[in-house]
Amino acid sequence: MSIYWDEGAMRNAGVIPTILAIGDSWFWYPFPGGSLTSYLAPLVDTKEHVILAKGMNGAEAFDYVEGKYKRSVNDALRLYGSSLSAAFISGGGNDFAGLNDMRPLLNLDCTDAQSAEECFRSGDSGLSGFLLRMDQHYRTLIGRIYTHTSLDCKIVMHSYDYTNPDGRGVFGSDGWLKPALVAANVPEALRQDCVRYLIDAFHDMLAAITPGDPNHLLLVDSRGTLGPKDWANELHPKGTGFRKIVNRCWKPVLEDAGLA
Length: 260
Known about the structure:
Elements: E1 3-4, H1 7-12, E2 19-23, H2 25-28, H3 36-45, E3 51-55, H4 61-65, H5 70-80, E4 86-90, H6 93-96, H7 99-102, H8 127-148, E5 154-158, H9 178-183, H10 188-207, E6 217-220, H11 239-256
Parallel strand pairs: 1-3, 2-3, 2-4, 4-5, 5-6
GO molecular function: hydrolase activity
Protein name: SGNH/GDSL hydrolase family protein
Keywords: Hydrolase
């Protein structure tokens, strides 16, 4: 087995991880078809790597550095840091998904908006402030990884993809994006554009981090990879979608880094 979501099972198997995957539901998605890590594991297994996953469904970037997964992540880095060839990070999606998270990023009433940009608030309480907080969370986590790992350790981040805010949740629940867009009176014709604008802004934030150490900080750009039929709901691809992102976007980056 090349991936463990349960650290106890990994220890019982007598193996030590060489990749730490710190992530949200894109690493932990529990439904049939699997998650991103389900397809990353056999890819890195070709180089005899073992992945240990930390985080959980619903995890936010804040949780890895100051929240409920801080201790778990720090302990894993302390215990296994010297053996790690890479750390994969998936965080930020849950920070802007959901009525309570996305609604504050949008203006009070977007009825007359002519573009996606006009729908988003600026300032500390708007999109720019959100991106600044994401930048700080990522840089804090990267710094902690640096202090526990060797100079050869790669840190791989990713930028999700352009989902369709159609209101599809899990088990018939409301989605994570459409309710906020509806509450802000975003015209239906602009809702997809708003998602693209948000994902692009998030990607640009990550892209501004990597030049600080381009040999070790790697960014997988998976935007525009999936079509409407590749999504299980508003936030998660189907298994075939995750596999498509791994094969088209992650594989070239990991091969170039010698991890696959």
